[in-house]
Amino acid sequence: MRVFVTGATGLLGNTITRQLDADGHTVVALVRNPPHSEIFDGLNVEFVQGDLTDLAGDVANSSPDRIDQAIAGCDAVIHAAGFIHLGWTKMEQSMGVNVGGTHRIMRSCVRHDKKLVYVGTLNSIAVGTREQPADETTPIDNAGGQIQSAYVVSKSVALSAVMAGVKQGLRAVVVHPGFMLGPWDWKPSSGQMMLELSVGWKPLCPAGGCSICDSRDVAAATIRAIDYDGPSGRQFILAGENWTYKKLWTVITRHFDRSPPIVAPGPIIRAIGGVWGDLVTKVTGNEGFLNTAAVAMSRQFHWYSSERAKAELGYESRDAHESIQASVDWIRQRFIDIDPPTRAETPRFADASCFPSGYDLPGTCGKQK
């Protein structure tokens, strides 16, 4: 089987690529620029260089571009690319990648009758709570609701576009991963949080919680979704163990021989921090990881149930401690020269070029899944 994969340099996309290759399938990976050879070292991957936001090749459906031609020659498509920015700014870029790019993939899938597995996000469906984890049937307007940041808005619009496409003949399955941890986090994405926690003591932690899953388990279920023979447009939550951020940060800091956080900040401190971040954004024109949108999201309990995926996709989510260990091992191997770091030392990074713009740990701007 030939599978066209977007986002193949990101945590989930690269894991999908490796599993497809291990199973004897051919991956046709979309890349914006020639990737570092080590990201695909030893893998049988064909590359198509292109940009999902460049729509010139699709004008009037007249001259098919390289992306369209590549999809035509594949059996299925996994669209795992995305632009993530947890804040109020970068709406144009978020819409261009997450919405415009998805439209482009959809058009080619419909044109050539190819099955699409669209990688969504839990941020585009209902929010769970401590008392009641959400599932695919939970009303979107449940208590709290999603914070309408650039990422949430753009991914929600993209999901609506996919569901509208299904009504017009698109064959698609949608998967919504939880908070993913695991190896091959080249950017890094969630690994940035671990790098941040490996340096110094963080007495405060986010007040909410997340649903921890392993990128290897999510990748396996995403691949199985290609052969899903149920109704088109079916959505699946691929989550895991529901933990508070305090518990997660406590476990991670122990791996790096660091003191765990003491407490989650109260509403007043959260408000001050978020407003301060927004003020800095207005003054500098550059929105960092601290802003009112990110603060509001961090106090929510993004807790979910994956029972539908377990029953219909055979999804299995391993123990969260195993995923954390694998992620820590990868981060140490890839980014940290010393093992383990002591409280008196500052980690040194093996290859600063691995970061999109130097050593800029806070935030998740511009990272692929």
Q: Please, could you describe this protein's structure?
A:
The chain has 369 residues and is an alpha/beta fold. The protein has one domain (2-264, 283-354): NAD(P)-binding Rossmann-like Domain (Rossmann fold, 3-Layer(aba) Sandwich). It is built from eleven helices and ten strands. It has helices at residues 11-22, 66-72, 91-112, 150-167, 191-197, 215-224, 245-255, 267-284, 292-298, 307-312, 320-335, and strands spanning 2-6, 26-31, 45-49, 76-79, 115-119, 172-177, 179-181, 209-214, 234-238, 241-244. The strands form two sheets. The chain has a seven-stranded parallel sheet with strand order 3-2-1-4-5-6-9, sandwiched between helices. Strands 7-8-10 form a three-stranded mixed sheet. Strand 5 (115-119), helix 4 (150-167) and strand 6 form a beta-alpha-beta unit. Helix 1 crosses helix 6 and helix 2 packs across helix 3. The radius of gyration is 20 Å and the shape is globular. The two termini are 23 Å apart. The model is unreliable at 56-64 and 338-369 (pLDDT under 50).
How would you summarize this macromolecular structure in one to three sentences?
The protein is of the alpha/beta class and 369 residues long.
Write the layout of secondary structure elements.
Blueprint: E1 2-6, H1 11-22, E2 26-31, E3 45-49, H2 66-72, E4 76-79, H3 91-112, E5 115-119, H4 150-167, E6 172-177, E7 179-181, H5 191-197, E8 209-214, H6 215-224, E9 234-238, E10 241-244, H7 245-255, H8 267-284, H9 292-298, H10 307-312, H11 320-335
Parallel strand pairs: 1-2, 1-4, 2-3, 4-5, 5-6, 6-9, 7-8
Antiparallel strand pairs: 8-10
Helix pairs in contact: 1-6, 2-3, 3-4, 8-9
Domain NAD-dependent epimerase/dehydratase: 3-193
Organism: Stieleria varia
Enzyme class: lyase
